[in-house]
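Regression report. Comparing outputs from two consecutive submissions.

Submission 1:
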Amino acid sequence: MLEIFKSLPAGGTIFNSLTVLIGSSLGLLIGKFIPEKLQENIFNCLGLFTMYVGINMMLGMKHSIAVLVSLVLGSVTGELMGIEDRLNRLGDTIKAKLHTNNSRFTEGFVTATLLFCIGSMAIIGAFNDGVRHDPELLMTKGVMDGIAATLFAGSLGLGVLLSVVPMFIYQGTLTLLAVWAEPFITADMFANISGIGGLMILGIGLNMLKITRIKLGDMLPGLVYVVFLTMIFA
């Protein structure tokens, strides 16, 4: 199977998208058979595991000050651009066009989009696929995302399935950019990108557990800032 996706442009992203589509579809089919309390328990388990993934990633950062400043600058930029609000409006627009009454549609769309797009596996995996034609890391991520999508779709509904669109665009674009960007990305940059991504994923876990309501979408520009600040601090 690995060889098949190696031969395809952005093969890792294609595999990842397929697993999310299959997982989400399965979740939509079996979700109604899962008791509400069990869905809540599963959702809490996902929240706890998401926090673990975030903590594990953030511990690998090399320059904590660069990550902190990037996170702050990213939040300010994101707030000025209204990224979180735009994501919410996009989810509401799709919800209206599909005439769905699922009150958690937007939450599912935004949460799944952030979870599937943020993190070192998405970024480094896309770079590996684009530069080395090695989709294995993204395929590993795809299996994890497919399992998560099954559980998310069961509790959050159709929005999880639709999150495959921004994920495909995001990872596919990163893969294409990787061809020329890879020579400029150092080990420290990868580590700090993973660190800031881990902080955001930790925030997703806290939001899932309803401990906080952090506007994580507004922090996304921090992933760009951290590359340049790492060059300064390094």
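Submission 2:
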Amino acid sequence: MANIKIPKGWEIPENQVTPESVYINRRKFIKELGIVGAGALSLFGSSACAQDSKVAKQLKPYQTQPLDAKKNEEFTVTRKQTDEIVAATYNNFYEFTSSKSTVWRRVEKFKTRPWEIEISGLVEKPMTLDVDDLIKQMPLEERIYRFRCVETWAMVVPWIGFPMKALLEKVQPKSDAKYVRMTTFMDPDVAPHQNNFRLPWPYVEGLTLAEAMNDLTLLVVGIYGHILPPQHGAPIRLIVPWKYGFKSIKSIVSIELTDKKPRTFWNIILPREYGFEANVNPNVPHPRWSQATEWMIGSRERHPTLIYNGYGDAVAHLY
């Protein structure tokens, strides 16, 4: 009898995964913009290739720092993931700029070592840890996750990290802890967008304690087999794959357990558009656009959005 594989809810069909060999479909993209002519195509192609070369050079120091992490086969795909250069050139990192395509240029002066993380609040064992010491203590693994932005773009990325649950169990939450409040760094000299006094810096995000303790919730320290480059939120960031990307706070310096729901960065700025829960849901449109479909970075293929980003089997019970 032939073996029949029943896919997990989060496994990604081949036709929904960006091939690693595909960078950006430049000709199609140019046509969509209405740019025509061989000269324009040649100029755009040359510029894009030059950028790819610069990004590849930027990534080399991080690629030479591999992380020893076992691949978790529960979180995998049937084809190759988003190309590393593509993933490194399209990032939201609002501390540096509101332009996703230029973050990689703006982070070159961002130093992510040494780096400490404070875990405090309603815990029995508060502590402050050096990030490299933390990495040595935690059970690192590689997981290939969908990543879905509220702006409707998406990637498929091999993150390296450890369940947030492992860290929280280390500090032992008190019985009255209900939420986890996370804060990123504050350094306007390095991150120029933090000089915008109209915005509520530093960036703060939050989860319920139940969400933070879910097996899918990952504190990430690496990507594509090596430590995180700055544009991905080095040296440690959050990934909650069933929520929109803005929930996945980057460059964390503080994790605080509290009994009060934290006010978060985007929820303070635009509460009507960015709620605390922020679960991926094709049936709940953003006030200014539909969430019914998503487009893949690299190929620009469009696909139906999956409820909870395809991870409903693991998280639907939380809601």
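Expected: both submissions complete independently.
Actual: both completed, but the second showed a warning that disappeared on reload.
Relevant detail on submission 2: Confidence is low (pLDDT under 50) at residues 1-7, 12-38, 40-44.
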